[in-house]
Write a structure and sequence with these properties.
- This protein is α+β, with helices and mostly antiparallel strands.
- It is built from four helices and 22 strands.
- A six-stranded antiparallel β-barrel has the order 3-10-13-12-11-14. Strands 2-15-20-19 form a four-stranded antiparallel β-sheet, with no helix packed on it.
- Strand 11 and strand 12 form a beta hairpin.
- Helix 2 packs antiparallel against helix 3.
- The two termini are about 70 Å apart.
Length: about 425
């Protein structure tokens, strides 16, 4: 039996159409997702690159001064008194008793010199002194005899038993013999001086400490030949009085107005935690033309002997200061053709280069005469290439956060 209605499409063909449509929709979805992912990755790359271009800086602010400021200058420590001991007697060293670092008292024997020639000269001079003393006695006896003879002759002349000529002769002989006594006594005095000189020279056979102190150098040994009067070579010993020390400092001209006798200072020595107090006692009252500095002297007690001659010291002067004067670290200055400037930041963390007038150099900081306010934020360690308008990022002030950032690996966004 026949029918007029068209035949229905087969089910297999319908399934194919549905599958093809689904594939097309999936392809369109995948393409759209890829395009969106690539756009997102490009944005991430751009943002990451821009973040890497913006430099990270540390920010500091100007600080107001206190009622006093510390001026830090290098100083040289010296002993209160230093003695260089040379030989005053020629001979050979037979013994030395004190080595470097030994504490000695005034008059203590440091070394002994054998000088037989000098000893012989002393004995000879003593013998000559004995002879001259005997000559005085002889001259005195002759003078006594001349005086008695003169008296007797004068009596005989008066009584007419002797001539006047004989009387005059005996009188003059008595005067001559009296003068001979004076000459003999003078010779004794001269010889006593010669003996005394030789005694002093023989005393120099013992090298003695000139004052209480410490032996800082010994340049002699047993058997060494030393020559009297030699001061051009090395000293046999050096002794330093270190109960009180002198500290010498070269002070720039700008600070001399604040330094006068009586100003206190603190000494810091490398390798020592202890500080020492010193007092300014004198100034040179003149400037070195090459450096425009003046030499000043401070003194410090040294009861424990921890201050050594020749040591380097940081001298911290406590001088009056203007409490309203601002100061900044040296590392904030930017040098260029326009002069000294600082890199300040505005509210948007953009750089504004400000010219400043620099005052005193305080060591690691500088006083600023004008150009800044206490609220300014300054870039610490700015490069010379920094310009006004540059964008910067402020470093995290939290040290733990900084440590975490440094420890974390740097990742770039995937493309």
């Amino acid at each position: 039996m026949s029918s007029d209605s068209p035949p229905a499409p087969p089910k297999k063909k319908r399934r194919v159409l549905i599958f093809v449509s689904a594939l097309a929709l999936c392809a369109v979805g995948l393409a759209a997702s890829g395009i969106m992912n690539r756009a997102r990755s490009k944005q991430e790359v751009t943002a990451w690159t821009n973040a890497q271009i913006v430099p990270t800086v540390r920010v500091v602010s100007p600080e107001r001064g206190s009622g006093e400021q510390d001026l830090i200058l290098p100083g040289n420590v010296a002993a209160f008194v230093t003695g260089s001991l040379f030989a005053r007697a020629s001979g050979y060293v037979t013994a030395w008793n004190k080595d470097i670092g030994a504490h000695v008292s005034k008059g203590e024997i440091l070394a002994t010199i054998s000088a037989p020639d000098l000893d012989q000269q002393l004995e000879e001079a003593k013998g000559q002194l004995v002879q001259l003393q005997a000559a005085v006695e002889q001259a005195q006896a002759n003078a006594d005899l001349g005086r008695v003879t003169d008296q007797r002759t004068a009596q005989l002349v008066t009584e007419g038993w002797s001539s006047k000529q004989q009387g005059d002769t005996d009188h003059l002989n008595a005067a001559a013999r009296a003068a001979a006594v004076s000459v003999a006594k003078a010779n004794v005095v001269a010889q006593q001086a010669a003996v005394g000189r030789l005694v002093e020279l023989t005393g120099f056979e013992q090298i003695k400490a000139p004052f209480d102190g410490v032996v800082t150098a010994r340049n002699v040994d047993i058997g060494d030949l030393v020559t009297a009067g030699g001061t051009t070579g090395r000293a046999l010993f050096q002794v330093a009085d270190i109960h009180r020390m002198r500290i010498y400092v070269n002070v720039p001209q700008a600070f001399l107005g604040n330094l006068a006798p009586g100003v206190k200072a603190t000494l810091r020595l490398p390798g020592q935690k202890q500080t020492f107090e010193a007092e300014l006692v004198s100034t040179s009252n003149s400037l070195a033309e090459s450096s425009r500095t003046a030499l000043i002297e401070l003194q410090a007690d040294n009861p424990d002997g921890k201050l050594w001659p020749g040591a380097f010291a940081e001298v911290h002067f406590h001088i009056p200061a203007d409490p309203d004067r601002l100061s900044i670290p040296l590392t904030t200055l930017v040098f260029g053709a326009e002069g000294m400037r600082v890199a300040a930041l505005d509210d948007d963390d953009k750089v504004v280069l400000k010219p400043v007038v620099v005052g005193r150099n305080l060591g690691n900081r500088l006083q600023i005469e004008s150009g800044l306010s206490p609220s300014d934020r300054l870039v610490d360690g700015a490069l010379e290439s920094i310009q006004t308008g540059d964008k910067v990022k402020i470093a995290d002030p939290d040290p733990n956060a900084v440590a975490r950032v440094k420890a974390a690996p740097t990742k770039s966004p995937s493309l």
